[in-house]
Amino acid sequence: MRDQLKRLEDLQKFDAQIQELNTALQAIPAKLMATQGDLAKVETLLRTERAQLVETQRYYAEQKNLVENDETHVSGAKHKLSQAKNSKEYAAAQREIDQGRETLSTRETEMAKLVEAVQAKEKLLADRAADVKALSDSIEKDAEVARVRMAEIQGKIDALKVEREKLAKVVRPDVLKRYGTIRMRRGMAMASVANGTCQGCNMNIPPQLFNILQRGTSLESCPYCHRIIYWEELMKDPAAVAAPVTEPPPKATAASRR
Ligand SMILES: [Zn+2]
Questions:
Q1: What DSSP assignment string belongs to the chain?
Q2: Which residues surround ligand 1, an ion (CB under 5 A)?
Q3: Domains of the chain as residue ranges with CATH
Q4: pLDDT digit string (tens) for 126-136?
């Protein structure tokens, strides 16, 4: 039975390694997706800012049209001035010219500001687009590294699985079945017993069971967590198998005295 236990223990090591690698493998896409989420956010921001720029440019074009209208209006008023028949008409035309010029001047000041705003925004957008490009390139590179890493881990898992299956073949089928069933429920199917305590659930096992474990001739389960248990010392030292158990060990010190 010691051989079987030893093989199970090795099997468990393989399973734990495979499990660990699987966890590492699954963590990689999650991390990549997080950075891709960041990229999507800055891309959205960039699109919003581009839309704002388009809106400002549209407003500028609108103002430019209005300037043309204002100029037409002023030249119309100038014409009226030249045609004025009396001082009242003259004054009215002059007022119209003054108002038109004032409107034009205000509009032109505003347009100059708009030109500045558009230029600043274009500069900002160019910078931001460069940042987005850099982030996108870096993600692309990370994705490539991740693909290589994932293939590497998968290769290790596949190799471990092959070794595990070889080992599983030399475990007694009933023992393997029991191991598999407990593993599905508990994650780890085997636990050592050290100082009379099951290392799987930290419960003290009954002294009679501990005696049986020391003989190492049967497959035993922890009465509390149902894992397959074995006496820690039995696995360490092959001579212990032959060593006769003469006295029931006191729980806490049995292992340390040996
Ligand atoms: Zn237990």
A1: -HHHHHHHHHHHHHHHHHHHHHHHHHHHHHHHHHHHHHHHHHHHHHHHHHHHHHHHHHHHHHHHHHHHHHHHHHHHHHHHHHT--SHHHHHHHHHHHHHHHHHHHHHHHHHHHHHHHHHHHHHHHHHHHHHHHHHHHHHHHHHHHHHHHHHHHHHHHHHHHHHHHHHHHTS-HHHHHHHHHHHHHHS--EEEEETTEETTT-PBPPHHHHHHHHHT-S-EE-TTT--EEEEHHHHH-THHHHS---SPPPTTTHHHH-
A2: 198, 200-201, 222, 224-225
A3: 11-169 (1.10.287.1490), 173-257 (no CATH)
A4: 999 999 999 99
